[in-house]
Specification:
305 residues, 9 helices, 10-stranded mixed sheet, globular
């Protein structure tokens, strides 16, 4: 089966604590969920490779398949638990404390389908679940390999609390064409605090496109020696910022696999990110027309350096 975008990584069951609410929202999470639902909203043909435990609700799988996402490579493992995170946001939603409470087994080479052809494979680890060998094999079955390294730089203390540390094995960077992370994460990946230097460091591994998301400040896109500032679109309301960066790359890739200009793709990503934060979890995505309308507004404002 040929897909436009295949996302690889753990689903999670997220417990999201928002400041204006006493009880947490328990909801489907994991980068693969946000990326795939976002790309699907723009009509992309998408599939997910993931591993979950016995506790993973069938309702989540039903929801994804209803959305038209291929879940034939989601393995439910007996006697194992699904990866779970607790997300505790501060008062203005500008930062959060993340805690891992359970983890599914890693994705191994033997878990990959024998015949996989994709325009883009997006590596989206959230808890060190994608080893280099898996990335290496996937790189042979796609025209474009994209990476969000957040799950590769995360370390967990005895209570499951998450911090970033430097990326020890940088070989994965040599496999990829598109890189997307937050500013904190690119600093952890490269060991370089200066944003422009950190971006250059990633390019030096042979990465063609580098995207760094900056929250409400938008994002930076670096391609072909040019750096563009991608504005954020101000959402109608900010409910839950979880998954905004994943929605960004989902939107970016959905356009990029159709050979659209990278600046436009990034504006679509920014527009999608602005819709997902208007609801809780991956449940709220603007309709396609509204996403493209917001993207057009941003495209007029895109700044090249």
């Amino acid at each position: 089966m040929d897909f436009e975008i295949v996302s690889v990584g753990h689903f999670s069951i997220d417990s999201i604590n928002l400041p204006n609410r006493q009880l947490p929202y328990i909801i489907l999470g994991g980068s693969v969920a946000y990326v795939s639902l976002s790309a699907r909203r723009l009509g992309a043909n998408v599939s997910i490779i993931s591993k979950v435990g016995e506790d993973f609700p069938e309702a989540y799988l039903w929801w994804l398949s209803q959305e038209g996402i291929d879940i034939s490579n989601v393995a439910k493992i007996k006697h194992e638990k699904t990866t779970r995170f607790e997300l505790n946001y501060n008062g203005d939603l500008s930062s959060r404390i993340l805690r891992l409470t359970s983890r599914s087994p890693s994705i191994e080479v033997e878990d990959l389908p024998n015949s996989l052809e994709a325009k883009a494979v997006h590596l989206a680890p959230i808890a060190n679940e994608i080893p280099y060998e898996v990335a290496e094999k996937l790189a042979k079955s796609a025209e474009i390999i994209s990476l969000d390294p957040q799950g590769l730089v995360r370390v967990f203390d005895e209570n499951g609390l998450v911090a970033n540390e430097s990326l020890k094995d940088k070989r994965m960077l040599e496999l990829i064409d598109v890189y997307k992370s937050s500013h904190d994460e690119i600093e952890a990946v490269t060991g370089v605090a200066d944003l422009k230097l950190a971006i250059k460091t990633v390019h030096d591994f042979g990465v063609e496109i580098v995207i760094v998301t900056l929250g409400m400040k938008g994002a930076v896109l670096s391609i072909g020696g040019a750096i563009y500032e991608i504005p954020a679109y101000t959402p109608n309301k900010l409910i839950d910022p979880t998954g905004a960066g994943d929605a960004f790359i989902g939107g970016f890739l959905a356009e990029y696999v159709r050979s659209k200009e990278a600046l436009w793709c990034a504006c679509v990503g920014s527009a999608l990110a602005s819709t997902i934060v208007e609801g809780v979890g991956p449940t709220f995505l603007g309709d396609e027309n509204e996403i493209y309308r917001r993207a057009s507004v941003l495209y007029e404002k895109g700044i090249k350096h």
